[in-house]
Please model this.
Amino acid sequence: MVRGRAGIFRLAAIDLDGTLLRSDGTISPRTRDAVRGSGLQIVVVTARGPATIHEIVAALGIPGTAICSNGALVVDLATDEVVRQRLLETDVVIELVHALRERLPGITFAVEHRDFAHEPGFSAWGWTPPAGTRVADVVELLADPATKLILRHADHETVEIQELARELVGDGATVVASGREAVEVTAAGVNKATAVAELGFPPEEVIAFGDFPNDIPLLAWAGRGVAMGNAHPDVIEIADEVTATNDEDGVALVLERLAG
Model:
């Protein structure tokens, strides 16, 4: 256990993109060493799906579980098995797709469970989907159980898409921008905080790190919520502490202080 100014921390819940990872997608040696030497149980809590986290967690040497898809999936890192999932309600999300197509012509969609699939015209950002990625109309893709629906539009900001999707779906799903490129829809009640809470740690024993509004429920719930120096203004506003940016080893600075 590590004693911090807010109490005794046993778990560090850490977002990946914009937080643990540098802007080029890598982990600095200092951050890697700080995570390994923290004396805390570490859980990665990310918007990413399971397929894109294995290299990262292997580099860190993190055991246990990873929380993916903004809390919709919990994956056992040793066996690669999904140990808990929260699936979208198919009828609800298909109705949302039709409504968004009517209100925002040109919007494109992708879906995710264990794997990523997308409809024609959807361009993944910053990476190339692997060979064999399924491509079909999103309504067809949603015939299979899905944990996440991803929305993009070339001519509209994510905030605009997010607010419209929230208006259309109401309480039927959770809608959040997980980055500057896309809006993501998960099942009602799904967020990073509820997923971490299910690990069994009381909030006062958890320190959490994040940078974007999808991290707000987690940082607000944890005993200490740490915003990155590069974080969205809304995240900085609710955080207990603001550290350096992801490119300046902000996570490592806090973990080193606690371990020292």
About this structure: The chain has ten helices and 15 strands. The longest strand covers residues 108-112. Residues 1-6 have pLDDT under 50 and may be disordered. Residues 87 and 186 are 7 Å apart (CA to CA).
